[in-house]
Amino acid sequence: MKPAAFEYHAARSVEEAVATLAEVAPDQGRILAGGQSLVPTMAFRLATPEHLVDINGIEELGRLAVEDGVLSIGACVRHAAFHRPVTDGGLGAILTFMAGHIGHYPIRQRGTFCGSLAQADPSSEWCLAAVTLDATITAQSTRGRRTIAGADFIQGIMTTALEDDELLVETRIALPAADTRFGFAEFSRRAGDFALAMALVSFRLSGGVMHDARLGIGGAEDHPRRIPQAEAALDGQPPGSQAFEAAAAAVAAALDPMEDAGTSAQYRRELAQCLARRALESAAESAAA
Amino acid sequence: MAAETGTETGTETSQVLGRSVERLEDPPLVTGDARFAGDINFPHQLHMRVVRSPHAHAEITSIDCRAAAALPGIFAVWTAADIPDIGPVDFRADRASENLKPYRQPVLAKGRVRYVGDPVVAVFAEDPYLAEDGAELVAVDYAELRVIVAADQEPGEFSPGLGTEAALLTHSFGDIEAAFAGAHKVIALDLLTGRHSGVPLETRGAIGRYDAANDILELHGAAKVIHRNKETLVAMLGCDPAQLHLHECHIGGGFGIRGELYPEDVLVLVAAKRLGRPVKWIEDRHEHLMCANQGREQRHLARIAVDKDGHILGIDDEIFHDQGGYVRTHGSNVANRTMCMLTGLYHVPAFRAVTHFRLTNKTPCATYRAPGRFESTFVREQLIDAVAAELNLDRVTVRRRNLIPASDFPYRLSFDEPHVGDLNFDSGDYALLLDKALTKFGWDDLQADLARRREGGEMVGTGIGMFLEEGGRGPSDGAKIAVDGAGGVEVITGGASLGQGFETAMAQICAAALGVGYKSIRVIHGQTDRIPYGIGAHATRATVLTGGAVHVTALKLRAKALDMAAELLQAPAEALEISDGTIRRRDDAAGATMTLAEVARRLAPGSKVLGGREPGLWAEGFFNPTDTVFPYGVHLAQVKVDPGTGGITVERFMVAYDVGRAVNPAMVEGQLVGGCLQGLGGALYEEFAYDENGQPLAVTLADYLLPTLGEAPEVEVLVTEDAPSPLNPLGIKSAGEGGINGVGAAIAGAVNEAISIPGAVRRLPITPQRIRDILRAAAGRTD
């Protein structure tokens, strides 16, 4: 568990980081942010980057701000920044609740929101949030800046739309309407483990029925995604067990879950169904409150 | 009577035994001054990295070390061909079993590899990073062979002419055929205990060093059975006992697996001698999870015969024991202990167990805390629960009807097989402990409460695991105690400290017998150059065996001190007492006194008052127990099952345990609580799973799920001292394994009740997915 030799570059600005990355990307150069996934894989020598470009010293990447109705999360904003709500209302509260499910306390002090997106683990809470809440991801390279929609960014297990020479500099989430209700539920074997499945939902209520429903499932398939059939089962319906059961059943029907030695597809499907229902129930409770 | 708990700092000699005094060993551990294997360094040391087999079963067709050897910083690269004179890692002397010898593990694989992780090549380098670089350049070609991943699979070939069923072992007594023929009911269960093991915070480590000036080879990082390992190594290396010494340093957890001899221990010693440089090896976690001893994996086809009232007539069990790739230092000990402890604390007239002791292509197995007992208790208690369900009797009632009554002690269990020793249960009142445990747990009220919760739709239930432990196996241990001219007391033992508080316990026993403050006592352990014998710390015997020896020796030393003092104080020795290191007349508190330090100075070699006495205030004594001791316990669990996810929450857990006599109740409690959490790991979380090719699936702590604080219930503990052992002077039994033994049994019973399906749990660990499988199948049946 000693990593192979690598060259370390401490970037002092985004421009310097992307310039260095452009040079070293062909030699498996990698960005080092929180390092909570990359460093262990290097210790196992499953990853052997010849260069690491450390962005932790770049002050502007630590920026976490709400302006013009948008939550902006810089590349070095740690999970722990969400331990307290970063905005008023349901969004800040649900991000805080989700942050509590990420690894353990020390991991959250070091790991970053954007790094989690760049890693694209299927069980990442933040990937589920980015997809379900339609985040916009900003990538920068010596070739310039571009933005990518959350749903397009995450493409599969540990696979993203990011090019080798691009640095994910910022994630932006538009603040939802004030009356939006959120719910989240996940199941893992132990506190802090990777989720076997999780569900994030939001909806608005008017005239006693739900609209603008969003329902995302993570941890079950090779990447998180919204389930349109489940959202259709909610829109226009009053919140309650009938609509929630229907949406959860739609989740189970729509999913093509991963299967591995420890977890069957059937179990993951059942979990996703159960968690979708629970996330909806908790969103409804938050509405009642 | 319940032992007193709560920490006290008192050093009053008369009261030190049985008190929860502060531990002596804590200051370096909590201030960062401890020295673990990783902290041991010698000038010019080399670092070893082992190239391991990526295949579960294969012939080695070629090994090319040239690229590795050519890398700058690589000092040597060894294959089996470089150490042809070194034999396989041997069994401990008293475990030798001729027919198992062909199954021992070579230090480096010879021709064939038998599990993923089997050592093939050793690389020695200037630093650990270079050693890994070098290891990556070693090219080994393999031809894969048929892989066996389960003991109940068709056996195969271990080596040409040798099958993978290494032994067929039998333990029996009574007329089993008649018992089953005359039974009111026969119930059969097919049960599995999963593969798990102790995962100490500190991985293994070994540092070999050759002291050429004195011609002594040293192994640092030794643990558990230091003196026994020395004997084995002396035989393997062909040296004189005086040419090899083992040294224990601080140990970050043992649990039975740390401190056994492994190939790496032998490699660092041989390399240190032959390469002329100290050699350090620190196991990484990935290696630990595929190379250190594992355990527990058994399948039991168990049957129980009962009469109409639930009295047990007989138990018959066919066991498939998964030994993994090789037979390690314990031989077939775990399989044997499984069988002989299976009937536990019940009166069973007829018994037969047959074990298929089989090699598989997985990590080798050996002893893990409560070896054979965690497994057999699970099986026995599931059988009892099944009897209760089948006969519609209360679970507690069935247990009460079958417990060995207190009037039957000592109780002897004799087996038909002449090589299987009798078990002599020394003392006990099993029904009394059960009553106390149920009362403290509030069992009767709880049953009503949980029944109400179940009616309300919750899946909640309770379970019971009753068990017997065995400890204090001899044949003998000794100790040396010396008082120096400044009054300092040194207790030299061949015991071992695995973090259990060995130094404190020995100091308490010595302090009580000698009459000194326990904090002034320095306890030596794990150093073969300080004392030529020692039992170590394994199978819960340190406090009984070494403690017995310390007690005997301290009394001997006391007599010697009083003999000298009697002359100096002009009083008969019988009239004197020692308290806090001061000797005075018992009947004259204000009279003349002298200290042990003064006595020690008067007894110095050449002293004018020595007379005909042997010089020195020191003594050596031995404790030779006639037999083992049998503590016992009751585990009670209350769980809640989430029907949607299959998740299991342990709402309450209680360990009730009769320890005979607690030297330090807080330390006993610590042993029980720690063991209990490990038991919860085996019952609910931990599993060394393998795929059909023998690839291990749990090689990181993200996959091998140790319970953490987040999963830990507040473990309730009831320590009783109702049945002190008549076999040792202090009445001590042992505490090391009472916390883990019954956890699997109690949790399984509780889950069965929670989901209202008797006998549903067949397999440990009980994972959420397995619960969902059970619930889905049950729903399918009712649809």
Overview of this protein structure:
The complex is a heterodimer of chains A (289) and B (783). By secondary structure, chain A is an alpha+beta fold. Chain A is 34% helix and 26% strand. In chain A, the strands form four sheets. A five-stranded antiparallel beta sheet of chain A has the order 4-5-10-6-7. A four-stranded antiparallel beta sheet of chain A has the order 11-12-13-14, sandwiched between helices. Chain A is globular. Chain B has three domains: 7-34 and 473-623, Aldehyde oxidase/xanthine dehydrogenase, molybdopterin binding domain (Aldehyde Oxidoreductase, domain 4), CATH 3.30.365; 38-145 and 210-250 and 258-282, Aldehyde oxidase/xanthine dehydrogenase, a/b hammerhead (Aldehyde Oxidoreductase, domain 3), CATH 3.90.1170.50; 298-472 and 627-782, 2-Layer Sandwich (Aldehyde Oxidoreductase, domain 4), CATH 3.30.365.10. In chain B, 27% of the residues lie in helices and 24% in strands. Chain B is globular and about 90 Å long. The relative contact order of chain B is 0.13.
Which key terms come to mind for this protein?
heterodimer, A: 289 residues, alpha+beta, Uridine Diphospho-n-acetylenolpyruvylglucosamine Reductase, domain 2, Uridine Diphospho-n-acetylenolpyruvylglucosamine Reductase, domain 3, 3 domains, five-stranded antiparallel beta sheet, four-stranded antiparallel beta sheet, B: 783 residues, Aldehyde Oxidoreductase, domain 4, Aldehyde Oxidoreductase, domain 3, six-stranded mixed beta sheet, globular, disordered N terminus
